[in-house]
Amino acid sequence: MAEQKQQDTASALKDIISHAKEYGFVFPSSEIYDGLQAVYDYGQNGVELKNNLKTLWWKAMTMLNDNVVGIDASIFMHPLTWKASGHVDSFNDPMIDNKDSKKRYRADQLLEARAEQYEAEGTPEKGKALLQEMAKFLDAGELDGIRQLIIDENIKCPISGTLNWTEVRQFNLMFSTQVGAVSEDASLIYLRPETAQGIFVNFLNVQKSGRMKIPFGIAQIGKAFRNEIVARNFIFRMREFEQMEMQFFVRPGTEMEWYNNWKETRLKFHKAIGLPAENLKFHDHEKLAHYANAAVDIEYKFPFGFKEMEGIHSRTDFDLGAHQTLSKKKQQYFDPELDENGKPYGNYVPFVVETSVGADRLFLAILCNAYTNETTGEGENLKERTFLKFHPAVAPIKAAVLPLVKKDGLAEKAQDIFHSLKRSFNTTYDDGGAIGKRYTRQDLIGTPFCIAVDYQTMEDETVTIRHRDSMEQERVHISELREKIGNAVSMERVFEQL
Ligand code: GAP
Q: What job does this protein perform (predicted)?
């Protein structure tokens, strides 16, 4: 029986980070210059995995829902967009510096860590009271109060060990730059901190050009940028990342029904792509943002604990309403359907239910879940192996064709098979080294199927398929490969569960 080791600690994340780098999934950005903090690049296997996740999300949204369509808006938007959305005035995090170590922290995170410590020590009521006090000060904009809480709680800088703190300042997370060639004429412009606003400002364009009827949704995948004060946990919190967002426009008063609906639909998606139910949970927001009347996170159990992977928000008519006011252009929908009194609902600003998942966080969850260390056998036969147990539909490479030896026509035969399969799904060819080593190479990048070409193949046109997780082998005819493997790796297997 294979035994799989469980690692829940920070060391598990370290192992995953080095595995991701060594096997071409994620590299630190511009590494030859010692990297750029909180920015990462996806390698040859990482980009395939990420593209599969994005395609699954995109198709689950736009292909499986006949009332959801997609767009691709620009990263740059008119600066008033961010005034209307509230980002210019309130997309801030409170920061504090330690004067001795010169290190910068998020003041709220220092207090949250203390609250977690109280919980771990068995005095959660103290933690709760602390968080309430913090929320009170933040709401009132009393940053001195936040600083005082840090001092009263005796929270020292982990580097210098001192309480020598600066005052707390609000720090806007948006990156800004300038458009225009002549500096006097140039105007301030932002890199979008969320993709959602590109959807809101196109609400009427899509509704009219697509003759969409409420309820309907607009989906988008794209880059977003936030100047995070403290970026940590690998690709969990980055300064440049990718979001997959969908705004669902509904009749006012029906938003809670749709909110509950989308909560369940999105949870089902995560399970269907292979994340285990016990590692997923809902976390309701106690304190709601000014624009929301309900909000929940889908959390995944990362090696550093249960943390937000996706947010589902009932955003009321806040965004469309704010754009209507600032642009002075009506953002209304004419609803011809009749209410219970037989009157048309008429014109209104729709309410919105949003689903928003970070492509990178989903990638990290899938990678953490797939990373497996397994021990088989006993005594002298004890063997350890590391492999990535991806759902076949998300695996970067679906099949590897491996001739047992290069001579006697086996390599040519294997090449023929490789060239015929690669038109149907991502296939690779490898003839270097012992076959066991080649299986291991594929295990390490999570290839679900290895096809071995041996002497018997030359006689009867059969090959073995070696299955990644069980390591079992089965003999099949070459003519069966495309259908058998194609079926197992097809995204349809995921969609069937939605
Ligand atoms: N439009 C709503 C919105 O942007 P959010 O909770 O700020 O809401 C949504 O972000 C999702 O985007 C998060 O659940 C997370 O998956 C992802 N995300 C946010 N900030 C991120 C960061 N700095 N790095 C990676 N992913 C991030």
A: Catalyzes the attachment of glycine to tRNA(Gly).
